[in-house]
């Protein structure tokens, strides 16, 4: 089971030592820069981290530097130095076992959350950590690898009239968080359908594979829950943070995400509830089917066992068995056996066993 | 399962873009106006949205404009402009995945809740979103389609002495919310009866169909719960909102709805409890019936299997089997077998298996 | 299942309309008056509601007017007018679907609670609503029909030295509530015994009827819980109400009821717990008994089926079966079969199946 | 099930009437007095309640009067009068259905709690109520009968250097409560062992008696819980009471009891958890054993039923059955049957049924 | 089950008496001293407790005295006297049944927590109590025996540039607590893997041993929970303690541990959830396998029992059974029986029983 928190490789290290802690997901580090204001928009992939200095501290220009891949500690350290990021923040950026949280470092606000990617083929979810550092006119975002849920945000940048372009970087921060939370709904919708299918199958044709799938989804829900529950607190923290970095207008938008977060939490809890009751339904369905099997066995056995006994009696080799000599003995006994069989069948019919 | 929240079509859109999000339930948009004070009452279906301007801002006239159908974004945008409604409110009106909530926009109070319609034939519930915008002397209400639970309110308007006519639009807002909450009781009563029937059937004749029905009602309860839980907070918010739009006298009436809301919540939780325990009862009932089946099999089999064995012994073809030659061998063995059979039956009788 | 809240007949009515809502339990209305102070005591059944005016507003006289039956709305309305009771209070008195609550109307305090009557023959509980209006020197109490739990209170009135006679009407109000809560203990004790019997039966002789009884008691507990939970808040409200109607000395006594209420709530929750686990015990007991049945079947079948096979072999009609000609063939095979039978029985004995 | 609260004999009585309510556990009342300061110690059994007056109000003497048995209401009333105890307190002392609580009467602090006595032979717990009245220089304690958990406290008195002797009566009150809470640990340890044994038996040899024992312990836990939960609040109350009767130094010691109380509560909840899951384990174990039984039946039946059929075929009496005449027919068919039997056995072996 | 709290040997003793309460885990007491500042580092094993005085109260030297083993009460008392430790603290140090907590004694802060050691061979966890006394320039730590989780901390001391060396003893205290909490993650990871294996086995091959293991892990989780839950409060207390002993910089680091603690708590709760549902899965798996067994039995029995009956019929010895004389009687009956057998098999195939 996925657990958050320190990994073995980290345990015992002095706090503050910069090491990438977590699964290696990306081979190399890609830095993309996006410099914008309402008039112009520059989008560029950086060759070296030093290239970003050209864009830094230009008046009236908002900067979004996105780093995909956390393996090159030196690059991240340099970037951190350029923007005066506290070592503890960088440590958190590199350790992908963070619980979603937001922390106010006065010159910037650090937010870390989990982006959920769904591999629909393998029916597997992956948790990627996204760190967002919101400064006065820049945003640094760090992801574990390329490929994210921010494409709609990037698309909106192309429209000069969009709020993203007209507002400051705090609106961009909001948009990124909003994109991550929006994506949760997609994941939940997918889970909703899968769980519904599962339940159908559970009643009709219960199999251990179904049970395994139920357990798998239960675990996924635990993973999701760990990512989503702290979000409520996080958004709350962002709304109430005493900092000029987040403007009043953006705070109203944050209220919207807060509503969404609660909806996500509610859904996760509902799914957990439903999944929990599924094991009981599985058991019930198996019992029901076993009952069916037992009825067939019982009907057949209770009809034929007495008849076989009767046949056995007249198969005995006693010398003095007068019935055996009778002319109508055989038809009479056949008739008697038929009557017994039919009446037993009728009895089971009445009890609705057949 | 029905989840609240953004739908796929909405994800990725810039916040504030007006699009109708949700299932299309109505073909066209119907606007009805009701202008009233204690002396007169005008009820009219509008041809175009511009017609409402004739009634707007007349002194001493309260206005209730009800819009059925959310597909014509242009109409709703126009109406919003006439009454100076904030774009974010209109966005919420159009997105039918809202969680019930109330928001104070100073010049008006926006309230959104869920009206539950029951299709008794299909045993299905539908959630329709109702948005109520309460201004100083007008109410705008938006529904997903025609057909609602407000007919008793409309009926009461015909009586000039009714409180509705004598009081302001805040009393109308209260009455509309009250009508929606009252309707929940009807739904709950219906569910109460259905669940009681289900439980009866569960004990007497457990079948997978019953289990399916239980699961269906469980889901309905989750849906209801999502609509009802936020209501408590909503009514609380309305009671405490610092706004002249809601008069002191109306706040007392809101306390009444608050009580009702808690009763609805309690009942929903009770139903959930009862439904949860039903799967266990189903399982118990199946086990009990299986036990019955097993007893029959066991009684028949354990009586006749030993007897068949005895018959088999005397059906053996050994040359030297003295019993076979005895004159009374056959009657003796028949008697012995009868005795064995009867005594085993008596034993089962004693153990209450037959 | 009993649900509180509006009934169908009431839904759609304008709030404030006086109609008796709820089951009709009494044929006619009986009004009894009890005028008392520490010196004298007058107890009388009133013919008409107007007769109470003779007692009203006499100096130094405390008045308790008890109304049994809620069908005559006119009588209750008149009485309300004499004592200046707010129409909303009268509406609540008449609607028997109230949640227990207390409301301060300044000139009087309105309290509504549920009296539980137990029909020990049918093992059924009935909830009767009791409304208590506590004024400066009068108490109006309304019940759904004659027959209540107040007889011990009435008895105590006969003693001029009793606190009831020496204290004001607030002490009477306390005594009435105390009598209702005390009665809950009787009900709970009865349930406690019934549930214990049930559990005994559940383990020894599980039957669907027992399961039905468990479900019935579960429902009763839900009903009780709905009546009892709000009591805590109610008593709290009475203790803290800022009103001269309840004297300091009486508030101390109310603390006592508060303790009792918590005890009742605790017991109800414990019973719910126990009842919930009973379905599991039922299932376990059935399984245990089924196991017993299966063991008998298995022992008999596994002993005799192989023996029957052997007998069958020597019942075959092959011409060349040398054993059949042997002098000691028959006794030898009988011995062999006995040995097999005995050793299998010993095996089952060892496994504790017999 | 043991429920706290009023007993039948008390219901209907005027509050404040002194009657011993509860089971009569002691035949007579024993009053013991212990007068002490750091220099001297007098321990005495009183003949009459008046004898205590000799010790009362002596300067620099702390007094502990312990009353065993609550049947002689007159004695308790007298004692109450000597020390100016409020009638409501005495009523609570006499009613053994109290919930543990502490009440500040300014001139003294009244504390009531439950002492748990374990009858290890019958495996039964008894709840005895202990009332402690802490005055400025005296403690009155009331128990339902002789025999308590205070012997270690009495032992410590003999040491003049002990804190008990050097501190005031508030330290004695603390020591008494501490002794009662300490005793809970003993009870819990006992239950812990019993429950562990039970669980072992549940998996190895599930029987209805074990289930009954589980239910019994569940009830005991409910009883314990009722005694322990209110303790937390009680100790809290004592720590924060605004009274000079409890000195600052003693309050620090009370913090210690608070910790213990939470440990007791935690353990009780854990035991409840474990006991709850035991019914499921019982059911699982039965099912597992039934599965075992079924496998034996199935293996034997499925091997021999087909063989018996074959034997039956060659037992038929058709005239033209060529096999019967063959020289090697019998050995051939025996071989065939052996092969069938062995291969079926191998199949079951492979499926791990044998 | 492991319960915290007083042990039998302690019950009845006067509070404050110094006795080692708990299991004896160490044979002798080992005292190690570590005196350090950023320039030098002295590490030494003390022969006698008096030797530590040489290091005490040296200016600019931080002292860490670690005591392994609690059996020599005299040594601990002496040490306590040297550093002016309150007797109540020493009592808590010696009683290993403490709940994790922190207490501010002004001149020092006392913290007690549980170190969890895992014996991977026996799959057993042991709880060792660690007491940390943080003074102005010293730390006293007490453990139940040698062998702990502090080795990485000791390793870091060797680096003169490490924060440990540069900061005061409060940073050391933080590091020790951090090491203990870090170790919880290792334990949890181990449990996570074991539980996952268990679950796999539960579905594929359910056995009572698996159930026993589940119960064992459940208990371990209860033990862990008891150690971890109070940690949250503990860290909170340390962060907010009004004392100069903990510097502002260290408090920031404590926030980090707080996050970790919540992660540990979450994981423990998740494991409990998963383990709880495992009993149900076990039951389901057994039922599924029983169903399998039953199907085999039913298929074999229902096919061959009727056929055996037919064979039995033609094994009867009636004189007048014309079929027996027919030339093709035998082949005809064999064909009929084959047809019956095949069609029944086909029927079961269709119902997916084979």
UniProtKB/TrEMBL annotation, chains A, B, C, D, E:
Main location: membrane
Membrane topology: Multi-pass membrane protein
Record-linked Pfam families: CorA
Annotated compartments: Cell membrane; Membrane
InterPro entries: CorA_cytoplasmic_dom, CorA_TM1_TM2, Mg/Co-transport_prot_CorA, MgTranspt_CorA/ZnTranspt_ZntB
Annotated transmembrane regions: 296-316, 328-348
Top-rank lineage group of the source organism: Archaea
Keyword tags: Cell membrane, Ion transport, Magnesium, Membrane, Transmembrane, Transmembrane helix, Transport
Recorded family membership: Belongs to the CorA metal ion transporter (MIT) (TC 1.A.35) family.
Cross-referenced NCBIfam families: corA (TIGR00383)
Function, in words: Mediates influx of magnesium ions.
Protein name as it appears in the record: Magnesium transport protein CorA
Protein species of origin: Methanosarcina baikalica
């Amino acid at each position: 089971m996925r657990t958050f928190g320190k990994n073995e490789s980290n345990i015992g290290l002095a706090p503050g030592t910069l090491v990438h802690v977590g699964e290696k997901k990306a081979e190399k580090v890609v830095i993309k820069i996006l410099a914008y204001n309402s008039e112009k928009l520059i989008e560029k992939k950086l060759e070296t981290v030093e290239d970003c200095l050209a864009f830094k501290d230009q008046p009236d220009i908002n900067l979004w530097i996105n780093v995909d891949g956390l393996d090159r500690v030196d690059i991240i350290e340099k970037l951190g130095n350029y923007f005066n990021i506290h070592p503890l923040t960088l440590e958190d950026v590199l350790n992908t076992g963070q619980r979603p949280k937001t922390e106010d470092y006065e010159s910037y606000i650090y937010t870390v959350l989990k982006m959920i990617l769904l591999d629909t083929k393998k029916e597997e979810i992956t948790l990627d950590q996204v760190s967002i550092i919101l400064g006065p006119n820049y945003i640094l975002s760090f992801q574990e690898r390329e490929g994210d849920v921010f494409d709609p945000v990037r698309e909106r940048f192309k429209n000069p009239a969009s709020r993203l372009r007209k507002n400051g970087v705090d609106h961009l921060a909001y948009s990124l968080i909003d994109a991550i939370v929006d994506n949760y709904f997609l994941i939940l919708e997918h889970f909703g359908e899968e769980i519904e299918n599962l339940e159908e199958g559970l009643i009709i044709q219960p199999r251990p594979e179904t049970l395994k799938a139920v357990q798998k989804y239960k675990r996924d829900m635990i993973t999701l829950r760990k990512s989503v529950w702290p979000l409520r607190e996080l958004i709350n923290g962002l709304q109430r943070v005493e900092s000029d970095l987040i403007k009043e207008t953006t705070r109203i938008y944050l209220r919207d995400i807060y509503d969404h977060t609660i909806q996500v939490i509610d859904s996760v809890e509902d799914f957990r509830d439903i999944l929990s009751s599924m094991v009981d339904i599985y058991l019930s369905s198996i019992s029901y089917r076993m009952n069916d099997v037992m009825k067939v066995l019982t009907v057949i056995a209770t009809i034929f066992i007495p008849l076989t006994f009767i046949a056995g009696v007249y198969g005995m080799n006693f010398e003095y068995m007068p019935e055996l000599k009778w002319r109508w003995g055989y038809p009479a006994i056949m008739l008697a056996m038929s009557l017994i069989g039919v009446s037993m069948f009728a009895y089971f019919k009445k009890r609705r066993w057949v």
